[in-house]
Structures are given as structure tokens and as C-alpha cells.
Amino acid sequence: MSLSYISGMKPYNIFNLFFCLMLSQSAFSENEEIVLHDAHIHYSQDMWDILPVDQALKMMKEAGVNRALVSATPTEGAEKLFKADPDLVIPMLRPYKSWRHRFTWFKDPELKSYLLEHLKRIAYRGFGEFHVFGEDADTQAVAQMIALAQERNMPLHAHTDLLGMNILLRKASGLAVIWAHGGFDVATEKLEALLKIYPEFYIELSYREGMMDESLKLTPEWNALLNKYQKRFLVGMDTYKPSRWVNLPENTAHARVWLKQLPENVAADIARNNLDYLFPVKHNKGLYRDALNK
After folding, report:
1. What is the pTM of this model?
2. If DSSP states are collapsed to H, E and C, what string results for the chain?
3. Residue 276 CB neighbours (<10 A)
4. Mean of the per-residue pLDDT values for the chain?
5. 193-220 tens-digit pLDDT
6. Quick one: which of 63, 82, 139, 168 could link to 252 by a disulfide (CB 3.0–4.6 Å)?
7. Does residue 168 have a pLDDT over 60?
């Protein structure tokens, strides 16, 4: 990184960047045996000046993240990282034209045109992470996005509530649907009910509440659920704001705390194998690299 670049940054940006790099070098060594494939990385516009593309990729690698689902607002952020490292980055298309559009996209009559336009830019692998709640998941615009996903076998990554998730699962028959944050605090009994009914339902665990007790031990109910449905969970860090990038080494280390409490094969599935099943590596090294060069 050049000194001229640093001199042009605002003081708090310089602090954030160097704090990121300091943490990335100090927090990873003791946890390097568990490689993570992260299902929830954002590289949105508020990070572009603070953390350049090469540094963002470096931070992920130093935190032991070898592959990641990446989305952004605007979506050009995901494209920036993908073009720089198509083997690490799995680009996801957010249906947001801007941050404000997040609150209205599911009623946008022009959404389908927007999605089709951006699907031509790079080889996006799925739609998300998108926010939609309750009956707003049952609109024409959402149905059009689901239809595009079904045509292309592109998984959905939804930040939603229980009602919204039930609507999406019913409408997205045969399509992989990932619940961001596992509903935050939705009871494990309700999660298991959905896991039993929908074989293509997956749970991503960033910000998931109640998994560990005060001594950082998995609770009995979560230990049992993760072991019973080891093929249906994904790790995620959710770098939705600058401080989450700052804390990426700490958050990946935290995930490894509970992963190490599981049998090795279960931990491997949740840490990386399940993401690789949904987003096969071969696509990034073949078809998707060809698309990148168009």
C-alpha cells in the first residue's frame, strides 16, 4: 500500500485499516487448523475507501477464510472482489439498487429488469443476502426473483422472519434457501421443524443467539441440532459495517470455539463442506472464470 494512498485517508479510516491488519496478524495463529468457507461477507460502498480490494482479500485469507459468499450494496462491491479473486469470492446478487432500495425492492416493478441486467455483468451464483419480512415475501417482484433463481439453479440467501421464511420455502420449491442468522432467536424446535419439511433449507449462523452458554460451551440443544443436521448449517461472519471487518479475526476465532466442540467431520461440514456442496468449486475454476473474461 502506498504512502500517498494512506495520506489521503481520513484519520478514522487510517485507524480502522491498521487496526484491521494488526488484528488479522495476531488472532489467527492458534486457530489456523480450521479453514472456513464463509457464507456471509459484505463488501459494501462504505468499505471501498477504507479497505481496498487487495487488503479485504488479504484479511479474509489471514483469518482462514478460503472461500466466501460476497454481496454488497451496491452490488458492484461483490464484482470488485470477484474480479480480483474468483477462486475465493462467490458473488451473490443483492436486489438493491441502493441502501434505501433495501426497504422497497420487493415492491419494485422494475426489479426483474434490474436483476437480468446485472446477471450479464459477471457470473453471479445466487441472490442475496436480501431483507424481506412477513407478507412482503409474497409479492410479484419476489416471485419474479425466485423464478429467475429456479431457472438458473441459484440459491437464495434471505434475512427474514419466520413468516417470511415459510413463504419463501413454499414458493422456492426445489431451490436451496439459506436463512441468514438462522432467524436470530427463533426457537430450535421451529428450526428443526423446517429442516424436517424442507430438504433444501439451510441455516447460516452469523449473529445466531443462544448457541453457547456463559462458559462458551455449546448448549445441549444446539449441540444436538448441529450434530443431527450437520449437512444443513453454514458459518458466517456478516461484515455488514466497518467494525465487522475490524473484528473479522476475532469473529472467526469465536466461530472456531464452538466448531472445535463438535466431532471433526461435523465441524468440517459446517465450516466449509456444506458451502462447497451448494456452490461447487469447479464452477469458479471453469465456467465462471470464462464468464469473467468476457
Report:
1. 0.87
2. CCHHHHHCCCHHHHHHHHHHHHHHHHCCHHHCCCCEEEEEEECCHHHHCCCCHHHHHHHHHHCCEEEEEEECCCCHHHHHHHHHCCCCEEEEECCCCCCHHHHCHHHCCCHHHHHHHHHCCCCCCEEEEEECCHHHHCCHHHHHHHHHHHHHCCCEEEECCHHHHHHHHHHCCCCCEEEHHHHCCCCHHHHHHHHHHCCCEEEECCCCCCCECCCCCECHHHHHHHHHCHHHEECCCCCCCHHHHHCHHHHHHHHHHHHCCCCHHHHHHHHHHHHHHHCCHHHHHCHHHHHHCC
3. 14
4. 89
5. 999 999 999 999 999 999 999 999 999 9
6. 63
7. yes
Prior bond of 91 cis (ω within 30°): no
CA gap 45, 162 in Å, rounded: 30
How open is the CA angle 213-215-221, to the nearest 5 degrees? 30
- Whether 8 has a pLDDT exceeding 70, the answer reads no
pLDDT tens readout for residues 41-85:
999 999 999 999 999 999 999 999 999 999 999 999 999 999 999
In order of their start, the domains of the chain are 94-292 (3.20.20.140)
Task: Tell me the pLDDT tens digit for each residue of 272-284.
Answer: 999 999 999 865 5
Q: How far is CA 286 from the centre of its chain?
A: 22
User: Taking Cα atoms as reference points, which of 40, 16, 22 lies closest to residue 252?
Assistant: 40
